[in-house]
Amino acid sequence: MTPVAKGALFVFTAGCLSYIFLKVPAAQGFANPELARLVTMHLPCAYVALVAAVIAAWHGIAYLRKRDLDSDIKSYVGAKIAFLYCFLTTITGSMFARVQWGSYWNWDPRQTAVAVLLLVYAAYFTLRASIEDPERRAALSAVYVLFASILTPMLGYVIPTFFIDQSLHPKFAKFDLSYRMAIYPMAIALAWHLVWMFRLSVRAEKVNQAIAELELTSEGGLA
Amino acid sequence: MNLLPMLIVALMILGGLFAFTLMTERRIATAEKRLAELENDK
Amino acid sequence: MKLGPIIASVAIGAALVGAGTAFVKNLTPYITFSEALKTNGTVQVMGGLEKSSVKLTSGNLSFTLVEKKTGTRLPVVFGHTKPANFEMAIEITAIGHYDGNVFQADNLLVKCPSKYQGTETKSYGTK
Which ranges of chain A does DSSP label H, i.e. alpha helix? Predict the structure, then answer.
């Protein structure tokens, strides 16, 4: 990203943040009305996690079709970012639960589901780490990441809604304009940042692989 | 102030994201230098 | 040679589906009121708050929860400070145990309202 784009992203994010703290009102009816604003971080993180999961699946499919290891790297980076945002959603959600419900963790249906989802991603990283051969690793990862990506909206949203009567989460959250004006721009800011992070991480991954290969061959040459 | 905890959380998340990408950028720069050196050595 | 990835992915898929169905059945931490009456240990129950039943006697908060599906009523006693948005709660989760007479709650969790809107003139938080 060019310095100008970086600056623009920074200003935009700072703007979103100031809006949340200066313009979004405390929400009535909550145990802690002031801290209901946490939802303006919690939801965007969840949206962006889904975007990252779609990116991971997209490049996973691309690998399976073209067998290009570049796609494998992109899919891997996408999954890493999806995991990061699932984790951030969980953390902000847990804080929200503490101030509004009175407990960081009480195995609410959504909390249980997201815990499983985080384990699904953890298994993906273990799977990658356990396979040496790059092509085999890429093929297996691509198949697995499709499961993980489908499970991301399923476990994050769809399945827990079947249990919404037994959840402390609201059935349909209704946001007034000021909340929507905070949530969507924040989601855009995070998604914009995701594009930057994604491209950089792909580059970093490629450079590191190239270095590792060169070092391997030069060591082989010395021996 | 009541909002302070949330401000800290938001700044940690957003600041963390920016710090992470900026650090990755620097790491890539050094790694690319090293790659060029290795390629020259060959 | 190509069989390996296929077997592995089928195995992973089967494991995921198996784990998925197993846990979907247990996705809720709550047990029914009738189960709670029979259990000695700490359990979680969830029900609607019967607003007319809320009483504050010598620092003890007592109220009745109504189970949505069955309409069963469960008297609950809570010995700590009343949660801030207790009156507005549609649903309450009580964590505690049944002592043979009432449900002794150690902790109360209050369901979030579904509306996010500004307080304007009203202010809550003062008892």
Answer: 3-22, 39-66, 69-100, 109-130, 134-153, 159-161, 177-222
CA distance A171 to chain C (A): 7
Residue A3 and residue C119: Cα distance in Å, rounded? 41
Range of the domain at A120: 37-222
DSSP type of residue C123: -
Per CB-CB distance under 8 Å, the chain C contacts of A101 are 93, 109-112
Note the ipTM here: 0.91
Say if residues A42 and A92 touch (Cβ distance below 8 Å): yes
- Phi and psi torsions of C109, nearest 5°: -115, 135
> C70-97: per-residue pLDDT in tens?
888 899 999 888 887 787 777 888 988 8
Q: What is the pLDDT of residues C7-61, one digit of tens each?
A: 777 777 777 777 776 666 667 778 888 888 888 888 889 888 888 888 887 778 8
Domain count across chain A: 1
Is-above-0.90 flag for pTM?
no
Cβ–Cβ of C68/A178 closer than 8 Å? no
The secondary element (H helix, E strand) that includes residue A31 is none
Instruction: Please name the amino acid found at residue C19.
Output: A
Phi and psi at C80, nearest 5°, equal -110, -175
Is residue A213 a part of any domain in this protein? yes
Of A14, A84, A26, A18, the C-alpha closest to A50 is A84
Q: Residue C48 in contact with residue C65, Cβ under 8 Å?
A: yes
